[in-house]
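Predict both folds.
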Amino acid sequence: MIFWILAALSFIQAAEVTENKILVEQPPRIITVNENATLACKYAYNGTGNEFRASLNKGTDRAVEVCSVSWNGSFHNHHSNKEFSCLVAVDSHKKQVNFNLWKLNTEQTDIYFCKIEVMFPPPYIYNDKSNGTVIHVREMLHQPPEIPSATSFWALVVTLGFLGFYSVLITVAFVICWWKNKRNRILTSDYMNMTPRLPPGPKNKHYQPYAPTRIHTEYRSWEP
């Protein structure tokens, strides 16, 4: 009888230990090249706690708290370190806390740990030490402005030169056609005086332009 009682008590204690334990899972490494990073911390908890606190700590000794959030159902209270730009999002249904970091620099490359705490009701518990996540912040390479290549420049020059030559050629052809058309119209409408003329002089003083002499008797031959 005593054996069964001791066995029951051991089972109850083991269940309480399992129930009050928090397990945290986080990725081993994050590499960022655009100064932004999101660290997702998943946790497993089957206890009766209803007020929690999650925090992100920097360094192997967890001496620097980057940011934190406290929640109890719908109310969330955020806090962030002045040296970091951080925003925390909590998904209670998925049991996941996302730490969104931006404006990171290379000096902030380090290992980061997620910490989940049950604040109420007692007893107070928190997760075991996890392996942490190494956030590697790479230096951004500022690309110099692109300089047009010599090939592109000469291609543009040749294109513009060809267009300019073609425009001049079309203009010259139009002017020549217009000049020829105007000349033909002048020659067609010009009056040509075919009356012979002699230079002035004493011998040509009484010169009269040639005109055929009409013989009037030919027209009167019918008269009686």
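Second protein follows, with its predicted structure tokens after the sequence.
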Amino acid sequence: MSVASDSPVHSSSSDDLAGFLEAELDSDSDSSSESFPIEEAAEDDDAEVSNHRLKRRKLEHVETVDEDETEDVSSSVNFSQEVSASSSKLPCQHPGTFGNMCIVCGQNVEEEETGLSFTYIHKGIKFHQDEVTRMRDIDMKMLQSQRKLCLVLDLDHTLLNSTVLRDLRPEEEYLKGLTHSLEDVSGGDLFMLEFMHMMTKLRPFVHSFLKEASKMFVLYIYTMGDRPYARQMAKLLDPKGEYFGERIISRDDGTVRHQKSLDVVLGQEKAVLILDDTENAWPSHKDNLIVIERYHFFASSCKQFDHRFQSLSQLKSDESEPDGALATVLKVLTQTHSLFFEDGGEDLPSRDVRSLLKQVRKEILKGCKVVFSRVFPTKSQAEDHPLWRVAEGLGATCATEVDESVTHVVAVDVGTEKVRWAIREKKFVVHRGWLDAANYLWKKQPEENFGLEQLKKQGTDEKSDDVDLCKVD
């Protein structure tokens, strides 16, 4: 086993690491046809622990490999020689553990020293933070050589929508006759999962989205659902296992309750994008996040978020494939990826996908100058309001007073002086939904769909929580 050629960290994906662990754990075993199941590994008895320890001694620990060493595989040393030589110099640093055993030396390690858990890769595997950092650094070099980044994908309301069967409304009963067979899911988009008491609808364009995205990104699933649900949804989305491998992270694998974090993703943060419908799920990684419009196919989904409008299934409709949310996001991903690898320059290690994503966002309302009318409380600083920051993040210039350069007035009432000025000067007058839609759909929306007359017609209160209509303009 050579250090450079056999190490799991020389792969750009965690499923290769899982495969490596499986192969190494089972080689030279009397029952070589058996492997550790990721989900259902039983408690090890004493005999198994001893056997596993012998197997684990075979796993190599790779010292940091510089670029010259990576290119020259022939200079790699045998693992047993490396361990023998290093043991005479320094004690093992226990970079990772399997159970409570070091994956390098096989010694028992105290639980508090075992590090960060990566149970979605292999049950019981943990790595110290220094080892995770080192693996990410090497993985980054591999990804860059393949012109790829990492993309973490949410499931519910992002790639699909699921409902419990008992929550189907009478007007949704027709869906039961439209479901596809689970024996061949490749051509379907609506599935009855009776063994889970659920029905799942895949979002339009999702198959094309995954196919195209996988050419530019190493794909992860990250859901707040449990592990069985996550893996079943992965089978519907990726029946051949082409896109995700073992990179399926559920709430059982997270490190913070009710939150998602990139600490369990084997990719450097500067090379990871996230697609999710819930911004608050990623409190520490908002700069990596693309927030997508929620997919509400089932009536129960609308009820979950207290929406009063009918779901797509109730309307017997669906999103457009070519113009839907996933098609739009794919364009954003493609643009961001192209910027990252632009010119193929030598400065790739210094590039950061987070700054490039902001650059792409600023193109959405570039050239627009926005004034707000009665949207913010009088005593507050307009520049500190979230809607002001959203507009600037989309590339618009914001101002507190009107002048000839203003293109849009965002208002909640037609009776203000600024709105009357805009009508007189033939400027656009829109309600705040125009900004919200641009923010979630990642493209400028037709102003005629967001006029104040539409706001009244729909009977929808588009005002922010802190709007006070008694405030003067």
